[in-house]
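Example (one chain per record):
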Amino acid sequence: MFQFLAITQAGCRRSFPRYLLHRIATLTFIAVVGLLTQTLCFPEANADSVARPNIVLIMADDIGYECFGCYGSEQYQTPHIDRLASRGMRFEHCYSQPLCTPSRVKLMTGLSNIRNYSAFSVLNSDQKTIGHYFQETGYDTFIGGKWQLLGAEHYPEQFRLKGSWPTETGFDHCCLWQVDKLGDRYWNPLLFLDGNNKQFPPNDYGPDIVTDHILDFIQEERESPFFVYYPMILVHNPFLTTPDSETKSRETKSRETKNRKNQQQNFEDMVAYMDHLVGRIVEQIEKQGIAEETVILFTGDNGTNKAITSQLNGRTIVGGKGKTTDAGTRVALVATHSGSIPEGKVCEDLVDFSDFLPTLMDYAGLPIPDGLDGVSFAPQLKGDPGRPREWIFCYYNPRPERTKPVRFVRDQRWKLYGDGKFFDVSNDPLEEHPVDERPDAYRKLKQALDTMPSESTTLLKFAQ
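Predicted structure:
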């Protein structure tokens, strides 16, 4: 440093008086020492000054992989999500939990349900979430959509308020349905806005309100790194008409149709409207000129409702929400980031819902917390081989007061349950014919199953 000052002084001696040279050298010395002090003593401040990507994680409610054009469906209209896939990466083997709360707990904490799941609609308040991690590293954070993690007023008394408030899980702002109160989610919605419940008029549509708040947040925070988590309200039942449906009578807005044909049509309309809202978010990011600074991921929280039938590549797929089969756990996953994620690539690697937290932190250049079950697939997103998973573990006990736990491990083809049943899922997706033979895959999965706990210690097993 002193050599640098001497050279500077020598080079400028002919142009400046001696007293000015002395002042320049003194001020330069102070500035350099200050910069070194900030870097060495306050590394987090230096880290915050480095550009990091904005992150938008979108998760639709109750929709399996079979409902998207980019996965081969011609039945549903999903042009915006298909565009994300064509401009980025699509994953063939992303697996959620079979039901919403278990999936949300897993995604938000990076841990298997066997370590921290307590009860349906409950996220333990002692859990550190993806919101906490990003908030602590200087990100502005927002969550909008469906919460269902506190234990709202309509659940059995022993579960009420046993979970987490969104305002205490690392999110600066929120616009959510079903925090402490239920209310309607679509028309005439009751939403929780930054700590307060607000009842909206009959002709207001909940998913639109949530998306509007997200768009405003993106515009306001476009100059600094932000994290948006959007667990969507759509496309969960009741199957009602949307603002774009051809029939929008008062009755179809407020009451779910019992006619299966109408249910199917309304569901298809809801899928199209979900895609429309994703398109609005992408449009806002492009409008704000931050597409190259923003990574977008889209997935679903579990399989499609059992009342819905879909056609995919010549197969009829009945919704499997709540089941441990592919119809209940295999979900779409697409990711895009202009200039960073390769375009039009299909990845066959396994992805578990516990992987989202470490992946997004890794992608942002942040240290991955110790003790997670999740594995980062950030290298794959950036076009590198990475270290793909060899298996996925699932522990499923959604209502421990009345259900029994199910455990299994799987890879892309084979699946082994805790009770010993073994399936060739690629050739038997409904798991109707257990396999008696024991190929090498069986031994690998059995060894993996033996490495995981057999029982959870966090369940709230209260009687109803």
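Caption: Residues 1-50 have pLDDT under 50 and may be disordered.
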